[in-house]
Amino acid sequence: MPRSEPIKAVRGVRDILPGELPLWRAAEQAASAVARRFGYEEIVTPILEHAELIERAGEDTDAFAKELYRFEDRSGRALALRPEATAGVVRAYFERGLNQGPQPTRLFLTGPMFRYDRPQKGRYRQFYQLDVEAIGSAAAALDAEVIELARDWLREVGLGDLRLELNSIGDSKCKPAYLERLQDYYRPLKAKLSPDSQQRLERNPLRLLDSKSEQDAPFKSSAPKITDHLCDECATHWALVRRLLDTAEIEYVLNPYLVRGLDYYTRTVFEFYPSGAAGQQDALGGGGRYDGLAEAEGWPPTAAVGFASGLDRVTELIAASGVDVIARPTADVLVVPDGDLAVEAAEVARICRAVRSTAVDYESKSLTAKMRAANKLGAKWVVLLTLDAASRRSAQLRDMTSGEQEELAWVELPTRLA
Ligand code: AMP
What pLDDT, in 10s, does the model give residues 215-227? Predict the structure, then answer.
């Protein structure tokens, strides 16, 4: 029989290993603590949604459709793996009656998202996000609140050195007229633009502003800026958001080229970058107002604002910054049987576990190898079990920091280790 190749992980997805998880958990716990501090409650929504829910929200955008994991299930239903959390959270908000109580409803979620993107460092096909949403209010104060929450979280995990970029992209009243101005400006330049931008000129002109192509760069600075063409309501909102951020002493950089391509985004948009880095590639998170999404999903028009941050990138950056969150021992105590003492070692481990995390080395052959393993695992104590001591129901307890060793009865272990 031919030997088959071992089956490896799917391209663009990865395992998060035990050595990495303490850092992930620390980042998630900080997220949940900060979100609760601001009065946000956790919600879990499904990874699977009707493809139509996602597609309605992302209508007309080629990138969105190309990146969607979309398939038919066994009954022929068109389903999608969620590419972001917002569409599902908004669905749940209406479908499950969260819109009934006092508003806004403040929610947060962490979990996997899926995008069929080109995999590279910091960009995966299954990645994880912290998602924060305040639904049911148009108050500018909520835009600032979500930004402050995001900033506090990133600060708490040691990424306080940030650059916050901010823009307003108007609403359904002023955006269409601005888009026409933008098209009027770019149309005569069409032949000089990158192929992507040429395509977007008619369908999604806002995206010309965040083009990364060098070919498009020279034309941007003279392009009309949306913040110069906001309607009165959007201009008031924009001024208030900035005043709130100023009062909270949150620094920001105004970036007139920061946009969100999807139609339902309105007014405030923002991105966080590690200070020094630029470009979409390095964004740690971003968000904005999406007053048009509920309606696009078929629900009553409802104002909302949110933020999403990539846990993959955040944890990679924490790891690279050398913050020591991972130097935790696998177990505090390692029981080391020297000889055929598996049953006794298991009993001793059970006793120790009453007060300390405890593992048993059933594997290593020589005592030297066992002590080396204990050091590697970072155990604080080793309980050494010899045949002779085990017959008296006692063992050697070794303090791995001081190197001191003493013989103790098994029953005395919990008091010594506590
Ligand atoms: P977006 O929903 O596109 O605004 O993304 C929000 C955040 O999620 C980004 O700032 C990234 O930190 C993260 N993110 C987006 N796409 C990916 C991906 N393919 N892999 C890893 N992180 C991602």
Answer: 999 999 899 999 9
Number of the ligand 1 atom closest to the C-alpha atom of 84: 2
Cβ contact 86:306 at 8 Å: yes
The single-letter code of the amino acid at 189 is L
CA of 285 to the centre of ligand 1 (A): 7
Residue 362 vs residue 289, higher pLDDT = 289
Q: How far is the CA of 372 from the centre of ligand 1 (A)?
A: 41
Four-CA torsion 103, 109, 112, 114, nearest 10 degrees: 20
User: What is the residue whose two structure tokens read 């309501």?
Assistant: 233
What domains lie within the chain, and their CATH numbers?
A: 21-174+230-321 (3.30.930.10), 333-417 (3.40.50.800)
- Token pair, residue 279, equals 């470009």
pLDDT at 75 exceeding the cut of 60: yes
DSSP assigned state of 47: S
Exposure string over 371-400, b if 16+ CB within 10 A, otherwise e: bebbeebebbbbbbbbeebbeeebbbbbeb
What tokens appear for 392 in the block? 């008296």
Q: What is the rounded average pLDDT of the residues 313-325?
A: 79
Nearest CA to ligand 1 atom 11: 310
Report the DSSP pairing between strands 304-310 and 285-289.
antiparallel
268: number of Cβ within 10 Å: 25
Sheet of 358-360: strand order equals: 358-360, 333-338, 381-386, 394-399, 405-409
How far is residue 234's CA from residue 138's CA, in Å, rounded to a whole number?
11
The b-or-e profile of 187-205 (16+ CB within 10 A means b, else e) is: eebeeebbebbbebbeebb
Residue 311 near residue 110 (C-beta atoms within 8 A): yes
Mean of all residue pLDDT scores within the chain: 91
pLDDT of residue 245: 96
Amino acid 329: pLDDT: 57
What is the CA(122)–ligand 1 centre distance, in A?
A: 9
Q: Alpha-carbon distance 336 to 349, whole Å? A: 10
Q: Which residue's CA is the nearest one to ligand 1's atom 12?
A: 310
**Ligand 1: lining residues by beta carbon, under 6 Å:** 84, 115, 117, 122-124, 127, 129, 283-286, 308-310, 312-313
